[in-house]
Amino acid sequence: MLRLSVATSAFAVSSFVCAQVQAKPVVEVFSTAITEAEVTQTERGWCAAVIAISDAYQSGGYEAGKAKAAAVIDTAYAYESGPVAFKPTYAIGDSTFRTTRQGALDYFVGPDPTIPEFRGKKLGFATYRHWVKCEIKDYVVQLLGNTANTMGRVILTDSQGQTAEPEKTWTFIREMDGSVRIVLHHSSAPFDAR
Asked: Is the pLDDT assigned to residue 194 strictly greater than 90?
């Protein structure tokens, strides 16, 4: 039978405790910073969404386009967190600034065409032309921790091969769930000095 002295037992216990303390802790770094890759991914997702809304409208009409746009808006924009600063390219009067989800939906697919004043008018950005290609060309990307800004052009091509190049400024924020969404969207037509 092996007997340990009190001193030996105390040494064994302290060595065990010391070994536990000296073991490498698990280090987890939490970062809310938005990366340039996430900005690029979010912008590409926005482009793909515009094409998807346009395709849904072309193949299934207003209701299909509206359903697709609703899903896109909930994914791309931070309306669930509060108002979004959204100024579309072509908007006038009281509808210039779209701080609500409904305002964004109306911009992407237009107001309900069954309302007489809107019947026959091409009022939805993603639906009045059949967009088939979308690219983003950024001139500025600012990474500011849990927010990021970009400024540049959205280059859209329709099914007839014609292009549109609205100028845009976007601000992104990392939401509490980790997603990156748009909180500011300002776009305008290029200035024509003719």
From this structure: no
The C-alpha angle with vertex 81 and arms to 102 and 138, in degrees rounded to 5, equals 80
| pLDDT digits 0-9 by tens, 39-68 | 999 999 999 999 999 999 999 988 999 999
Tokens of 26: 């698990």
The DSSP code for 77 is: B
65, 127 Cβ separation under 8 angstroms? yes
Structural domains for the chain: 36-188 (3.10.450.50)
Contact present, 152 and 136 (Cβ < 8 Å) = yes
Per the model's pLDDT, the better-predicted residue between 113 and 80 turns out to be: 80
Is 70 in contact with 105 (CB distance < 8 Å)? yes
Contacts by 86-89 with C-beta closer than 8 Å and gap 24+? 86/184, 86/185, 86/186, 87/185, 87/186, 87/187, 87/188, 88/125, 88/185, 88/187, 89/125, 89/166, 89/187, 89/188, 89/189
Read off φ and ψ for residue 53, nearest 5 degrees: -65, -45
| pLDDT, tens digit (0-9, with 9 covering 90-100), for 126-174 | 677 899 999 999 999 999 999 999 999 999 999 999 999 999 999 999 9
Identify the CA nearest to 82 among candidates 185, 187, 183.
183
pTM of the predicted structure, to 2 decimals: 0.79
DSSP letter string, 41-74: HHHHHHHHHHHHHHHHHHHHHHHHHHHHHHHHHH
